From TrEMBL:
Swiss-Prot/TrEMBL keywords: Cell membrane, Membrane, Transmembrane, Transmembrane helix, Transport
Membrane-spanning residues: 6-27, 34-53, 65-87, 99-118, 166-187, 193-213, 287-306
Native source species: Pedococcus bigeumensis
Cellular-component GO terms for this entry: membrane
Record's protein name: AEC family transporter
Entry's localization field: Membrane
Keyword Lyase annotated: no
Biological processes, Gene Ontology terms: transmembrane transport
Pfam families: Mem_trans
Record-linked PANTHER family: AUXIN EFFLUX CARRIER FAMILY PROTEIN, SLR1864 PROTEIN
Membrane topology term: Multi-pass membrane protein
Length: 307
């Protein structure tokens, strides 16, 4: 259990640094925008090249992936239905809300949790690849289409993600993993150094927004925030558990890994996307906060029941 607390404590400290810097007026919301842009255009793509180049892509075809997809589809699908029929959100707002309800923190939190709690960082690889290569490109395609103010053609939807630096970085990393190629040190070392900025930039920018933005639940719909939080913390891991255990027959430690991975909180980079496209930034921010805090008891409970 120490790995769970260590992962969450690390995130909390770095977010706290951002909030403290904002409180002391060392930085402002302009700084938060700059940090988010650096993370989006430079640091995160570099991180994806390095991370995915070392991932075992064969695990994408595992039961872990099937159960994870089920959890994502149900959680995101429920939110999309509510957003379109009840709250009448735009395409961009609906996209950010759906990602907030189903896109897990598989990187800077999932990797340490998989390493220390599950005993192998490879358990998070299928989810990481699914999100980077499928969910994120689709989400960014919808956000790009919404930002243009017109309905995109099929070619724009298909080609749009390949113009996004995060998608390009992910595809380069996947290509390196599949082919077994290794980047020379003069290319890998700078990428690794730039990639190391990604998580701190995201978390500090998030802390600044927490301190200087509207208070929790003071902007937007509290019912909508409650929906994204419940879908992420409870519905997604529950669906993954039911599919894995009842449909796929997964048992033991493998089942624990699937449920714990699905119970991870909403990823901070959803807030980066929301900020970049100016869509549902408060909903993304507050969902990340609630699910990050709430994931601790949820994962501990899952570990106690299935461990």
């Amino acid at each position: 259990m120490q790995g769970v607390f260590t992962g969450f404590a690390t995130i909390a400290v770095v977010i706290g640094v951002g909030a403290l810097l904002a409180h002391l007026r060392i930085v402002d919301l302009d700084a938060q925008q700059i940090l988010s842009r650096i993370a989006f255009f430079v640091a995160s793509p570099a991180l994806m090249v390095i991370t995915l180049s070392r991932a075992d892509v064969h695990q994408v075809l595992s039961a872990n992936l099937v159960a994870s997809i089920a959890g994502v589809v149900v959680a995101a699908g429920i939110y999309v239905a509510l957003a379109r029929w009840l709250w009448h959100r735009s395409l961009g707002e609906t996209t950010i809300g759906a990602l907030s309800a189903a896109y897990v923190n598989a990187g800077n939190l999932g990797i340490p949790v998989a390493s220390y709690v599950l005993g192998d960082a490879a358990f998070v690889a299928p989810t990481l690849l699914l999100q980077m290569l499928v969910l994120q490109p689709l989400g960014l395609a919808f956000l790009d289409a919404d930002a243009h103010g017109r309905t995109s053609s099929l070619w724009q939807v298909v080609s749009g993600p390949f113009k996004n630096p995060l998608t390009v970085g992910s595809l380069i990393g996947l290509l390196l993993s599949i082919t077994g190629w290794t980047l020379p040190s003069y290319a890998a070392d700078p990428l690794r150094l730039l990639g190391n900025m990604a998580v701190p930039c995201m978390l500090i920018a998030y802390g600044i927004a927490l301190r200087l933005g509207p208070g929790l639940g003071k902007a937007g719909s509290r019912a909508e925030l409650a929906s994204t939080s419940v879908l992420k913390m409870l519905v997604q891991p529950l669906v993954a558990y039911l599919v894995a255990s009842l449909v796929l027959g997964v048992e033991g430690h493998a089942l624990l890994a699937i449920v714990v991975t699905s119970a991870l909180p909403t990823a901070q980079n959803i807030f980066v996307h929301a900020t970049r496209y100016h869509r549902a930034t408060v909903l993304a921010r507050d969902t990340i906060l609630i699910t990050t805090v709430g994931a601790v008891p949820v994962i501990l409970l899952v570990a106690a029941l299935l461990g």
